[in-house]
Predict the structure.
Amino acid sequence: QVQLVESGGGLVQAGGSLRLSCVASGSILSIEAMGWYRQAPGKQRELVAHIDNSGRTNYADSVKGRFTVSRGVAKNTAYLQMNSLKPEDTAVYYCGADANRQAYWGQGTQVTVSS
């Protein structure tokens, strides 16, 4: 099993910044990719940003130019730097990983952006 633990969420004013972290642990043979997803109340979970082992990234159009996804040197960590936050970024943010050829999810961390 692989466990993902997110941290770094919180309450921030519009225009502010937050940095989310995700650490993967457990019986990890390989991690092919990691990503961040979010789910706002009443909405479906959506991709925010994704990064694979080659460093290739993919972003939702709504966060391009504001958010940056990265991996740690150890490759079992992922980060999401969120700048110029907007109230519409308010959601539970989940870390996801393709590990051991399976998909795993963290429990999520709340991000609330006040106007």
Remarks:
- The chain has no helices and eleven strands.
